[in-house]
Amino acid sequence: xxxxxxxxxxTNKPYVALNSLNVRLRNGxxxxxxxxxxLYEIKDGxxxxxxxxxxxxxxxxxxxxxxxxxxxIDGESYPSVARLFAGAKVWFNLEDEADEDYFCExxxxxxxxxxxxxxxxxxxxxxxxxxxxxxxxKIYRALWKEHVVExxxxxxxxxxxxxxxxxxxxxxxADQAAERYVYEGDYDCTLSYWDNIENLVKxxxxxxxxxxMTS
Length: 215
Known about the structure:
By secondary structure, the protein is an alpha+beta fold. The protein contains five helices and eight strands.
């Protein structure tokens, strides 16, 4: 069998910065695939790409470098690659140098010339299962901070001189207060959540006031 994986993807950049391919099989098994050579063309946001001489980098979190994709067997012998990958959820690991907003979403995929019917929807839980504790913590804190920023803004709106505060300063005050609360642990455990947010907002407003007075 031709050991090539072909993709049609939606992308937003004129380059390819893809490290490896995550595959979560329908039976719960997990596979990470890589390749020795990449051929591609990008036109109007559509990436057509071939990975040539593909191999398995890891399977079920075990390092198994060098096994060919069509030899993957988990519990029973699959008569075809199509059956093995049918219903799988697939996504790319990006290279470190990729832009922060870079994405490459797989629309179509075939293995060795066999078209694969992929899962229709991506489940966040499948992605989270691949993350390290540190990566999960980063995502958790980033999402947490978003909520704290909104709460800090609501506190700022309570000030009688709110209308006089430039919008960019409101954003700055809320962001700094949330940063201190989420990432620096700058809060008093004996106070309520809202009292802590109010105190942090007051501190940040005072800092800006001092900057204005000394400028």
